Amino acid sequence: MAHHFSSLAEVVQSCVIYIKDKRVAQFNEIVSRMRSEKAHFDRTGALRAYWSWLQTDYAQAYYELLNVSRTQADLREIFVPINHELEEATRELFVSYFPELKSKTGILEVSQDIIQHVFDGMVVDSQIEYDEERISNLIVFLDRWLDRLWEDHV
Description:
Number of strands: 0
Distance between the termini: 51 Å
Number of domains: 1
C-alpha cells in the first residue's frame, strides 16, 4: 500500500470514493427496480427500500469511515465533498422516482434532510439493537409526515 499511497488519508479517500460509487450504483438499481415494479409511485415502499439500502455492507462501511472522519480533521476534509456527491446522487434518484418534486427544491431538500438524518440515527441505533417494529413504525410516521408536507406544497 505504501507504494500506491503516500498517506493514510489517501487510502481512506480511495476507499470512500469506491464505497460511494458502489452505494450510488446500488441505489440506482433499487430505484430502477421500484420503477419497473410499480405503475404508481409508492412513498412507503421507497422509504423501506431506502432503509434496506442503508443495511448493505457498503453502507455499513461508509458509516464506519464517517465515524472515524468525525474525530480526524484530515479525514473529515476528504469525506465532506464525497458525502456531498453521495447526497446529490441520491437526490437525483429520488427526483427520478418522485418527479413532482423536481421543481420544488425547498421541499425536496427538507424531505431529503429529514429522511436522511432520521435514518442515520436509526442506523446507529440499529447497530446496538435492531427492532423491526420500531423501524416500521418510524417509516409509517415519516410517510405520514411527508404526506402532509407534500400535500401542502406539491
